[in-house]
Design brief:
289 residues, 3 strands, DNA polymerase, domain 1, mainly alpha, hpI Integrase, Chain A, elongated
Length: 289
Amino acid sequence: MLFQYISEYIDYLSVERGLSENTLLAYRNDLVDFSEFLSRLGIEELPDISRTNVNRYIRNLRQEDFSPGSITRKIASLRGFFKWLISSEYLSHDPTASLEQPKLSRHLPKVLTLSEINTILQESLSPWQRAVVELLYAAGLRVSELANLKVSDVNLEQAYVRCFGKGSKERLVPIGKYAVAAVKDYLEKRKMFVLNTESDSKHLFLDEKGHDVSRQKIYLLIHELGKKVGKNISPHTLRHSFATHLLENGADLRVVQELLGHSDVSTTQLYTHVSKKRLKEVYFLINKN
């Protein structure tokens, strides 16, 4: 029943908001799930959707053991959808108005110590592997941002990378001398590789066949390297470590927010809790000994 509106809304998010394919798919799945729930209730028309229906849907999610995080995301999807329906004059009332969000337990992000970062970097890494690790840590990039980097996005002379985050928001992130050296070494190898494979890709990182490297391949690399320090890590762990280490060394919270590409400083503020937790651990360790 809602499918034509959902399709139009997803097109709007794609064209007007520039959201990624993964984000669009998540929105679509959430809204289709809600539409199918309404169909089971016998509700077929937009004006018939009430706050009671939405509450029943949320109760149903809880009964099916969806996590608070998943329920929060689905509520956010519904809110955005109904807000668009009203602005597009398809609907005159918002059944999601003043909905209460589930209380989320705050999990502190996993981070690596400087010693663990150094242990990983001391491994025998290929040029592309070292460049990947250095950029993830030195620039705090998301894995999608790293995989989408083009050669033209890297400026080694001025030591920065240009990336496009959520909503295609552009930002420039400075990188240190070790990252610059790693990328420079990789680019030299990439030139010969492109000649041999006749690849015409503009992306920075290529796989063994000359195709754009996938996020999954980067995930696998970081996961395997995590085993060297006895930890189950992902590319996002290096992003968390980047932010935490900056704050521990006196960086301004707003600066870290800009470097990470967070739209809300409260998201960045979570890393201050990580820093305090680590300081307490070190304090008790010193006093114990």
